[in-house]
C-alpha cells in the first residue's frame, strides 16, 4: 500500500506524520511536518496557525504539525471476516478501577464535585503482522461516523490511533461552527449480537444527568463570551458502531454573526470538557490527578486538521490506543455521578476498549 510506505518513510526520516479520515469522508489524508512538529507556546491562537494538524494532551500545550506535505488516498471498505474474541478481563485492574469509582461516588456525595470522568488502560499485544495504515483503513470501514486517525510525533513515544465520535470544535469553509455534548453510554448491540436502533434506546436518570452536565458546561462557555445566538439540536441517541451515546449539537453561523474568532475562543474555554474531565472542572482535574495511576498523555486531549482547505476539525481523542512495536495500550474512561455503579462503569470501559480492539487485535 502506497500510504503505508509514505507513513513508514516519513517516520524513518524524522518527520511528524498524521493520517486521518473525517466522519463520513470518502478519502483519507496523510500530512507530514518534515521538521518533526513543534509545541505551541502559551498564548497561541488558532486563527494565527498555518495549515496543519493539532494534537493536544489532556493537560498541557498542543503539538503543531505544519502541512509541509499533504496527500490524499481513497479508503476502501476492508471488511474482516474473522470473529473477535474479547481479551480476558484483568481482575487486578478491575478491582483497582472499581475502587476509584467508589472513592469518586463518596467524594461527589460530599461535594463540591458533581461529576468526574475516570479512565484506565488495558495492555495487549497486537498481531505480528500489524500495520498502522491497514488498521486505519479497517477502522474507517467499521466506524463510518467516527474520526479515525493515526499520529506519530518524534517527541512522543509510540504511534497514537483513535476512532472518536466526539467533535470538540469544528469550523467548515462556509463559516459554520459546531461543537457537541456527548455522554451517556450503552451497548449498541443486543445479547444476540444484532445492532440496536438509536430510536429504541432507553436512558436512565444517571445518563441523562451525566450528559446534561456537558451541555450546561458548553452553554456556560457561550455565556462567558456573551454568545446568545446558537442552534441547539438534541439530545438525540447516536450509534457509533458498538456503542450508543446521547448527543446534543450546538451550531453557530460565524459569518452571519461576523465572529471569525469563535472557534479559537471556544477551544480555549472548552478543553477539557465535562465529557472527559468533570464538573466543577478544577475539582475534577485534581481528583483525576490524585486517583488515576497512569498518565493520560494524549488520551482525552484533542486532535485534528486545522486551517486546512479553509476548515478546522478538532475531535476529542477518545477510543484511543498507544502502540509501541506490537504492544498496545488502550485507554477508556466513563463519567461518574453519584448514581454510578462501579461494576457497570468497569463494563463501560471494557466496551470502549473493544471499539479498537475488535479491529486491531484480529
Ligand atoms: C471518556 C470517554 O468517553 C466519554 C464519556 C462518555 C460517558 O461517560 O458515557 C461518553 C462519551 C464520551 O464523551 C472514553 O471513551 O474514554
Automatic annotation (TrEMBL):
Q: Which residues does the UniProt record annotate as the domain Chorismate-utilising enzyme C-terminal?
A: 94-352
Q: Which residues constitute the signal peptide according to the record?
A: none
Q: Which Pfam families match?
A: Chorismate_bind
Protein name, entry field: Chorismate-binding protein
Q: Which organism is it from?
A: Aquirufa originis
Amino acid at each position: 500500500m502506497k500510504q503505508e510506505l509514505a507513513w513508514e518513510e516519513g517516520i524513518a526520516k524524522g518527520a511528524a506524520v498524521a493520517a486521518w479520515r473525517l466522519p463520513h469522508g470518502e478519502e483519507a489524508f496523510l500530512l507530514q511536518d518534515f521538521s518533526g512538529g513543534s509545541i505551541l507556546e502559551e498564548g497561541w491562537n488558532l486563527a494565527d496557525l498555518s495549515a496543519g494538524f493539532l494534537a493536544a494532551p489532556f493537560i498541557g500545550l498542543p503539538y503543531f504539525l505544519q502541512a509541509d506535505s499533504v496527500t490524499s488516498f481513497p479508503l476502501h471498505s476492508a471488511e474482516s471476516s474473522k470473529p473477535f474474541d474479547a481479551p480476558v478481563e484483568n481482575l487486578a485492574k478491575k478491582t483497582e478501577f472499581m475502587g476509584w469509582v467508589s472513592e469518586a461516588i463518596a467524594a461527589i456525595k460530599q461535594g463540591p464535585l458533581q461529576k468526574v470522568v475516570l479512565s484506565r488502560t488495558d495492555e495487549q499485544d497486537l498481531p505480528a503482522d500489524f500495520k498502522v495504515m491497514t488498521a486505519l483503513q479497517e477502522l474507517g470501514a467499521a466506524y463510518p461516523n467516527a474520526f479515525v486517525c493515526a499520529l506519530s510525533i518524534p517527541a512522543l513515544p509510540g504511534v497514537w490511533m483513535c476512532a472518536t465520535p466526539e467533535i470538540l470544535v469544528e469550523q467548515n469553509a462556509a463559516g459554520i461552527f459546531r461543537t457537541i455534548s456527548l455522554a451517556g453510554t450503552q451497548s449498541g448491540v443486543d445479547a444476540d449480537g444484532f445492532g440496536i436502533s438509536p430510536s429504541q434506546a432507553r436512558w436512565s436518570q444517571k445518563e441523562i444527568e451525566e450528559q446534561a452536565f456537558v451541555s450546561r458546561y458548553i452553554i456556560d462557555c457561550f455565556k462567558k463570551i456573551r454568545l446568545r445566538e446558537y442552534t441547539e439540536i438534541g439530545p438525540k441517541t447516536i450509534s457509533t458502531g458498538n456503542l450508543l451515546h446521547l448527543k446534543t449539537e450546538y451550531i453557530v453561523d460565524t459569518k452571519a454573526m461576523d465572529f471569525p474568532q469563535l472557534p479559537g475562543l471556544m477551544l480555549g474555554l472548552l478543553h477539557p470538557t465535562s465529557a472527559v474531565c468533570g464538573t466543577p472542572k478544577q475539582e475534577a482535574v485534581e481528583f483525576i490527578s490524585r486517583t488515576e495511576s497512569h498518565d493520560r498523555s494524549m488520551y482525552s486531549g484533542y486532535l485534528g486538521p486545522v486551517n486546512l482547505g479553509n476548515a478546522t476539525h478538532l475531535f476529542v481523542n477518545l477510543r484511543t490506543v498507544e502502540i509501541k512495536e506490537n504492544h498496545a495500550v488502550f485507554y477508556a474512561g466513563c463519567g461518574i455521578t453519584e448514581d454510578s455503579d462501579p461494576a457497570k462503569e468497569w463494563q463501560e470501559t471494557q466496551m470502549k476498549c473493544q471499539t479498537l480492539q475488535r479491529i486491531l487485535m484480529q
